[in-house]
Amino acid sequence: MASLARIAFSRALRPASSARLSPAWAARRTYSTPFNGTTGSSQQSARNLAAEALAQKTGHTPTQPTAPKGKNKPSKIEKTPTSPAVYALYALLGITTVGLAYNVGCPYPDEEGIEDAKKHPDESFFAGYIRRAEERYHAARDKMANPIWDKLLPDPLPAPYQQPYTLVINLDNTLIHSTWDKDHGWRVAKRPGAEYFLAYLFQHYEIVIFTTQTADTAMRILEKLDPYQYAPYRLYRESTRYIDGKHVKDLSHLNRDLSKVIIMDSNPDAYALQPENSIAMKPWTGDASDTELVGMIPFLETLALTEVDDVRIPLAKFRGKNIPVEFAKWEEDLKEQMRLQWEEEQKSKKGKGFGIFRVGGQQQEQPPVPMFEMQRQQFQEHFMRTHKAVEEEAAENLKRQKELESKLKSMKISVWDIMTKGGPDPAALAALAAETDAPAEKAPQAAEAKP
Amino acid sequence: MPRSSDHSRDPCPYVIFSDLGASFAMGAIGGGVWYGIKGAKNSPRGERFPGALVSLKARAPVLGGNFAVWGGLFSTFDCGMKGIRQKEDPWNSIAAGFFTGGVLAARGGPKVAITSAAIGGVFLAVIEGLGIVFTRAFADQNRPMMPQLPDIAPPASQ
Fold it and tell me: Cβ separation of A217 and B8 shorter than 8 Å?
């Protein structure tokens, strides 16, 4: 085969004259290539021959073999050398990762660490690392699930202001109902009697509105529902406890005595942790003829007026029953008992003849009513008389506050004032406040001057 | 009662349109700024404003469209997950991000699709986590305060 190659090669180098003798044959240069039949060393010798011929023709020997093609082809793009900044960044990343990894499981600092070491004395560093990493993870997760503050409400107010009992009431489907439709978007309906409920029970309870809605939506609803702050404390979603995908209202964080707390909610998940303090309400879906909320008022009012020691006992008594109806029945039974007792007493009194033994000197014409009923009547009358005036005054205050706020916004606050006095000029603030109060003072003066 | 408890967004099927539109707006405005500046930078002095306009007219709607596709798909999967699981969770959003990333890269084959899905899922997990952290961080201003005593009248029962 190699000989064939040599023959073919020498034929190709024949001078032109011989080519003229047999032009077609000479024109067909049949080089034997490595691809039609030759192997290994013969390829190499063929390459050497080719290199020699090329060297003869071009006049210099090629020193480099041809560059590899295909996958191994070198890129024409010049690689810039990596700058030290890249190495620095990688180093920083490495250090951060190592530091984080250490901090995840490192021994607790200071006193905690000493206590921890005492609890687990014979523990290898690795086992301790795993345990502390798990503890830290669970602590972080719990922190997200727990109510945001340990004490959700501030401490009880001093003596004449603080009510002995606390009523925690839900917003969605208990006091309001929200619907969405394409034309109006979200709309919120007030339950019939909701505002009256809050205003009336404000006399007996410290009302807390606890909702699983977030603050940004719920605050706007509450501004309209309860503008006079009959429910001064409002708790939103971040105050709930997140258990198993449900928002639970944990009353133990309320900073109040649990024997004096009632929770009214239409969602059983809400009072899952303290069901004994709960009044279950049926969800309100927008029915305008609903009377359940207002029907609860006698029961709640009587609870407060009779000054029960532990609200959970009467709540347990009425659990599972329709409270407005059952409580009315209970009251009727009680009155019936008292009437029977009084009638017996009357009969026995008539039997005795001595006038000096008649207590009180007067014979009662009517059967006695329970004390709480008399008190209730008093409260209702007081409410009817004063409620309107109280609300008007509250509305005035609200209006004045809003005026002040809007004036504050439009007031020019100079940077100098902020730097030197830490805010707007106090004199200007006082002048503004006086200005908004002055018209109110002028009005009663004008009213007095008229008659 | 519409199932969604989040009163700041429309309930589920309708929110897809809102999200589509919102994503488009984000992409178009962001793209307008980006491509406008880029076009201005790459234009000769004196022709910067027309150059910026041409660049953003050509490219900003495209970016808006890409964002809209991402947002619309995400919202669709989110509503789908809510409907299937009947729960309102951050996990719905994370799964929706996962599926969106996967679907949008599906042309490149399973390996590329899963990588993209994982990236989408992680991205959404970060967003949800940050959302929860920020809600709790800003919630401190809603803490119930003791009302000032002279302002409230003692209730009638005392």
Answer: yes
H-state helical runs in A190-322: 194-201, 215-225, 292-295, 297-305, 312-317
Residues of B in contact with A203 (CB under 8 A): 155-157
Residue type, A183: D
Nearest to A231 by CA among A262, A254, A206: A206
Residue of chain B whose Cα is closest to the Cα of A383: B156
**Helix boundaries (H) for A244-322:** 292-295, 297-305, 312-317
Check CB contact under 8 Å for A236 and B158. Answer: no
CB B121 within 8 A of CB B95: yes
pTM, whole model, 2 decimals? Answer: 0.71
Residue A227 in tokens: 């503008």
Which residues in B lie closer than 8 A to residue A390 (C-beta atoms)? 153
> How far apart, in Å, do the first and last CA atoms of chain B sit?
42
Q: Which of A144, A180, A245 sits opposite B2 (nearest CB)?
A: A180
For the sheet with A165-169, list strands across it.
Answer: A233-235, A205-210, A165-169, A261-265, A278-280
Which residues in A lie closer than 8 A to residue B132 (C-beta atoms)?
144
Q: Give residue B68's identity as a one-letter amino acid code.
A: A
At CB < 8 A and 24+ separation, what contacts does A84-93 make? none
Inter-residue long-range contacts of B143-146, CB under 8 Å, 24+ positions, other chains counted: B143/A149, B144/A152, B144/A153, B144/A154, B144/A208, B144/A232, B144/A233, B144/A234, B144/A235, B145/A154, B146/A154, B146/A155, B146/A157
Structure tokens at A320: 């599972």
> Between the CA of residue A246 and those of A270, A349, A402, what are the distances in Å?
8, 63, 38
Q: Cβ-count burial of B1 within 10 angstroms (0-12 exposed, 13-18 middle, 19+ buried)?
A: middle
A160 touches chain B (CB under 8 A): yes
ipTM score of complex: 0.80
**Residues A223-276: pLDDT tens digits?**
999 988 899 899 999 899 988 888 999 999 999 999 999 999 999 999 999 999
3-class DSSP assignment, residue A387: helix
pLDDT digits (tens, 9 = 90+) for A344-354: 888 887 655 55
Rounded CA gap, A439 and A95, in Å? Answer: 67
Give chain B's mean pLDDT. Answer: 89
DSSP A188: E
The tokens 């008229």 sit on which residue? A450
